[in-house]
Amino acid sequence: MNDAARTYDVIVIGAGPVGENLADRTQAAGLSTVIVESELVGGECSYWACMPSKALLRPVVARADARRLPGLSQAVGGPLDAAAVLGRRDEFTSHWKDDGQVGWLESVGVDLVRGHGRLDGAKQVAVRTPEGGTVRLTARHAVAVCTGTSAALPKMPGIHDINAWTSREATSAKEVPGRLVVVGGGVVAVEMATAWRALGSEVTMLVRGDGLLDRMEPFVGELVTEGLREAGVDVRFGVNVPVVERDGAHGEVRVGLEGGGRVVADEILFATGRAPRTGDLGLETVGLSAGDWLTVDATCRVTGVADGWLYAAGDVNHRALLTHQGKYQGRIAGAVIAARAKGEPVDDAPWGAHAATADEAAVPQVVFTDPEAASVGLTAAEAERLGRRTKVVDYDLAQVAGASLYADGYRGRARMVVDLDRNVLLGVTFVGAGVGELLHSGTVAVAGEVPLDRLWHAVPAYPTISEVWLRLLETLRG
With a threshold of 0.90, does the pTM exceed it? Predict the structure, then answer.
């Protein structure tokens, strides 16, 4: 296909979960929609992030829980079957084939153009196809950028010549490395250290700061560090990595440490941040800078573009780099594009139908380590920086009956940050085995701004870990 031209109501660039959600909403609203994708339909989450990483981690956490239960611990005392774990991971990624995702697009009536899409002026997108042709697309109403992010490697001499792992290689590797160095202390770093250590790697974590998961409450990083060290991970803090060398394409990796010393490994994972996939997107043709994050308003419309036809949803706008938040933004943006196309009122007030308010007030996140960590809303430090008048309430999860039944020697902690002026929750954090399933109750409380007097009437079932809600409220009353 060469220089073909088509016109749609809406063009979506990027067929990951965010783009799929946005396209689904606009198509369902009666707007003809096309989606452009240069890789696999389903995006990063389906093939190199959420799905494969959680498939790797689930057996790890299940075994850890089982080992803490008398009568079961002896039965699971041996090593994991790495081949079986990797095989199950491959099933969840559909063996890196996107037939099922393409079929879903067809079922909802969204057209697909494969190739690299670039903006080419107002409401124009030029797609370079794998065959070398060009498809020129024109949007009647809107173009939505949903291209996400890619791993950001540090500026280091020769780093692009050593075949370092990023999150993609860490989640899709076909074999267990004998020795793995993980550089970083965030979510990707701790999850992949957890997974590959349990699968048999000798793992060394090199962390520049003084703790893990520094965007969560401090006690989260402390408990996760304890768990990693007990699993046999060598966690080192205050470490800078100025140089990395490798013998050949896949030989031994030598990691030089600032101040002297080195670590030797078979593979090295850099989990050091993300960068927007906007470098070759044609932003300069609409007055924006290539390679930048796309700044948007509450409706996910890009600011600084005349006539307001350009939108950006998901990681690429830097509001909340999480798949579920990106999908939420996709739903918001799809609805608002449809409303504006039809001349209907737009409700962009806080918590309105067309405002991504949760990005600022109620972002949930689960870290699938052992122990798990889960949080929503503001940390105590964030609330203080914003000048909120708060009270911080902590509770030892081990004192909850459901937790003690869950596993012997249960360790965990819960915190809620209370807005004293409005008598609602600003944030909640849990760390401990199984706490990920507690999080949505906290998200409802924070997003719904449930008055604490009413929250007293939400009775937790006994004996479950969720009884911690009652204990937190009792501690608040004193």
Answer: yes
